[in-house]
Amino acid sequence: MEKLLILNPGSTSTKIAVFEDETPLFTESIVHSPEELAPFDHVAEQYEFRKELVVKTLEAHGVALDSLTGIVSRGGLLTPIEAGAYEVNDDMVWQLKNKPQNEHASNVGAMIARAISVEYGIPAFIYDGITVDELLPINKITGITQFRRKGMGHNLNTRAAAMRYARESGKKYEDITVIVAHLGGGISVNLHHNGKIEDFINDEEGPFSPERSGGLPMFDVIKMCYDGEHDYNSMMKLVKRQGGLMSHLGTTDSRAVEKMIQDGDEHAKLIYDAMALNIAKNIAKCAPNVRGKVDAILLTGGIAYSKYVTEYIRERVEFIAPVVVYAGEDEMLSLALGGLRVLRGEEKAKHYTKVENPGY
User: Fold this and answer.
1) Burial grade of 76 (CB within 10 A; 0-12, 13-18, 19 or more)
2) How many CB atoms lie within 10 A of CB 177?
3) What is the model's pLDDT at position 133?
4) What domains, with CATH codes, occur in the chain?
5) Helix pair 90-98, 107-120: axis angle to 10 deg
6) Separation of CA 31 from chain center
7) Would you give the DSSP letter of residue 45?
8) pLDDT tens-digit series, residues 263-278
9) Of 213, 193, 195, 194, whose CA–CA distance to 203 is shortest?
10) Which end of the chain has fewer CB atoms at under 10 Å, N or C?
11) What share of the chain in percent tops pLDDT 90?
C-alpha cells in the first residue's frame, strides 16, 4: 500500500491531502489571509511559512511524516517540460526559487516536497506541471519572430480527463485523439494526439472566461497600454482578473449569470452565449491539426456542471466528434494517481535540469 502526501499551493490557500492508494484519508484547504501573506515580497519567501502549516496539519490529522511512501506536488512555473512525472530535485527547487517563468504560489509546492523528501528519504514528484509544453513546432509559430505560442496552462486536469476517456474506452492514452476544453475561472482548449498535447489554446489567447479577457483586438490593446492611464500591473490585472464576465457583468460566478438570464436579462444572455460560442470556436480551431479525425471532445472544469453551457457548445461542435462531459476537476486525485503510476512502475519519472539563462 502506498501512502501519499499531495500538495497544491494556491494564491490564498494551500490544499493538502493524504491518500492511501486511490482512497483519500483527508483533504484540507489551509487558508492564508492577506495579512499573513503581506510580509512576503516574493512567493519563494512563503516556503517556511507554508511548510510549517503543512506539517502542523498533518500532525492534527495524526499522520506521521515517516509513514509516507511518496509526495506529489502540483508543478510550478518551471521552464517548458514534458507531460507526466518529474522527480523533485535540487535543480527544480533552484529554478523555482531563482528563475521561474513567473511568480506563482505553486512554485512553493516542490520546495516543501523536496525538504520533506530529503529529511525522511521519501520520493517526491510533480505531475503534469503548469508549464508542460509539447506543442508541435508548427503550432508554436506566430506572426512575430520574438513571440511563440506556449502550452502553459491547465495540463493536469485536461490530461487527467483525456486519460479517463482512454481508460473508459478501453484504449491507451497514446491511441486516442481528443480535444479537451477546461472550463473554469480561466478557459483553455488543447489537442491530445499520439500521446502528446500537440496544440494548446491557453487563456491568454483563447476564449474569454469568468475573469480573464482571452484574446483581444491587438491594436486596441497597444493603444490602451500607451493611454497614460495604464501601466504593466494595471493591464495585467485587467486581462487576468477583471476581464470576461467580470468586465461585462460584474461577477465571476457563472451561476449568478445564469440566474440573471432566468430573470430575463437579455444582456447577460448575450455575454454568456458569446463566451460559450468562443469556446466552441476554439475547440473547432484544434481540429485541422488532425484533419478533423477526432475521437471525442471532452468538456471539464467547474463550468462543465452547467448544462446551459455544455449543451450550447455540444450543438456547435458535435459535427466534429461526440461530446463527453467530465464536470469538475479533482486535482488532488489526479496528482495522487500520477504518483501511484510512478511508484507502481507503470510510468517512469523524468529528471529535471535547471536552466540558468532561460530566455523565456
Assistant:
1) buried
2) 18
3) 95
4) 3-132+332-343 (3.30.420.40), 137-329 (3.30.420.40)
5) 150
6) 20
7) G
8) 999 999 999 999 999 9
9) 213
10) N
11) 91
